[in-house]
Amino acid sequence: MTGDGTRCVHGGHGGHVVGEPVHPGPVLSATFHLGGPDDPPPADFYGRAGNPTWRALENAIGELDGGECVLFASGMAAIAAVLRLAGRDGALVLPSDGYYLARSLAHGELAPLGVDVREVPTVGEWPAGVLDGAALVLLETPSNPGLDVADIAVAAAAAHAAGALLAVDNTTATPLGQQPLALGADLAVASDTKALAGHGDVVLGHVSVRDPALAERLREARARGGAVPGPMEAWLAHRGLGTLDLRLTRQAANAAAVATAIASHPVVSDVRWPGLPHDPAHAVAARQMRRWNGVLRFTLPCEAAVGQFLAASRLVTSATSFGGLRSSADRRERWGDDVAPGLVRFSAGCEDEQDLVADVLAALDAVGT
Ligand SMILES: Cc1ncc(COP(=O)(O)O)c(C=O)c1O
After folding, report:
1. Atom number in ligand 1 closest to CA 203
2. Which of these CATH numbers, 3.40.630.30, 3.40.640.10, 3.30.450.40, 3.90.320.10, describes 4-241?
3. Lowest CB count within 10 Å: 127, 225, 236, 341, which one?
């Protein structure tokens, strides 16, 4: 198998056909030539059902995930398709400390239709019987914003023993950082809005699976549901994917440097980054992850302290996303996460390490002054 950089650069790009563009543009057409009335429909016939620009990116991501990729209009559209499909077959078991909209969708939309929705923590004991009658277990690892890590192989064995599928939200890790399908999961879902597309200018998501029948059901659900990705978004994400290996390397190095530098600062507590050797998640993360990423978290004394930190920083943007070129920070309690008011999810960007560390330390020095 070729390396991460090579697969990111070349994945999904066609053969070297003389006269064809080396960098094809997005196919924006909503409709495609059908031929005669009795001819079988071609691969592309209508933009809600299929599109060659989607397929190019699906081939690239599928190769990285080790499965068949189905693109969705956002990470939430991908998660919603999975929960809606599985919710017809039994109970849904979701992380109690993962991305809040997955829980909100399950409790707000699916539970009123009669779907049994249960929650388990990313780390720690699961309640006895929680998997009885389950159709799907969703893990999020590393979790968001806690940066806890669940053991995917252990969860897969437990889910399968109960007759359930295991889905893993792989957004934080990216397909380069972790391969849930190889670790036993049935579905890898992700928000590609984050590091995969990587430039903060695209909203997109995907699901990858090994079972072709499940991939087909997901494609049907996508066409039926109708909230499909735009070809321009898929094209931009494919362009972004080309540099994922490079960006991840820089982001992980910056995250390591920031996490180490801030750990002893007097206003900072509870720094978590799975790549730190003493992090509580390090052992399991090192076992199942291929490489680290740029997302960490730390806690400042209060909400006002986060405001002072952000106001004093020249490089860290106050923004609620992660995995982009620019370093950013998000006070998660504002979105309803059950965390301390001063908890900050920090996304290390691609700035120079010494510039970023100096900026973050200077901004922390301004807290409380
Ligand atoms: C872990 C995780 N999963 C899913 C989502 C939803 O993705 P999107 O915003 O692309 O719908 C997010 C968004 O922040 C996320 O952080």
Report:
1. 10
2. 3.40.640.10
3. 127
